[in-house]
Amino acid sequence: MTITAIDTSALDAGASTTASRSTTGPAAMQDTFLKLLVAQLTNQDPMNPMDNAQMTTQMAQINTVTGIQELNLSMQTLAEQFSVMQTLQGTQMIGRSVLVPGDRLAQGEDGAATGAFDLAGAAASVKVEVLTPGGAVVAAVDMGALEQGRHSFSWDASGYDGDPGALTFRVAATNAGDAVASTALTQARVTGTGAQAGALTLTLDDGSVVNYANISAVL
């Protein structure tokens, strides 16, 4: 009776998935392979035995699959450890102020409302308008001519009757009659850290959660 070579297609399919720490890991697969190989050798036709090339090919296949699974397991472990280290290091950010994309004005203890923005290019005229939740303009800050880059501004909100924390701002910048693009930035304080999809996240004092990669600056 001729015994055909071991079908390792199921093992090859398993190599494309992330290895687990269960009994279906590399050691279990090696044990299963050896049992199959022993059974094949025991029941093969003595007049037509498996040649060395077939045996070598099958052993190479199981070694490849096992190696991939072990590599996947190692990478998964490293990713988990890195995520934990990131979260621990992120705790050093608690209490710090950061700049994140947003148009909300930050309130200072002296009654000043502050914000920042990035200009995509030089502008001959830059004006910051302070807006109510309904979109009404309550104040304007003339910044004059500014170079490309990051700039900050301050507005005295002590005379505002409403809630200064609800105010937002927008930037109008032009150069030679053409609009210059800008990105509004808001200042917030970090109150907590966490992780999401392997990335460090920061919880801000307004309750929002942002990815650390989205932090424009640490103040």
UniProtKB/TrEMBL annotation:
Stretches assigned to coiled coil: none
Residues of the FlgD Tudor-like domain: 85-215
Domain of life the protein comes from: Bacteria
GO biological process: bacterial-type flagellum organization
Region (Disordered): 1-26
Pfam families xref list: FlgD, FlgD_ig, FLgD_tudor
Keyword annotations of the record: Bacterial flagellum biogenesis, Cell projection, Cilium, Flagellum
Ranges where the FlgD/Vpr Ig-like domain occurs: 106-177
InterPro entries found in the cross-reference section: FlgD, FlgD/Vpr_Ig-like, FLgD_Tudor
Composition bias, Low complexity: 13-26
UniProt similarity note: Belongs to the FlgD family.
Described purpose of this protein according to its UniProt entry: Required for flagellar hook formation. May act as a scaffolding protein.
Stated name of the protein: Basal-body rod modification protein FlgD
Organism of origin: Comamonas flocculans
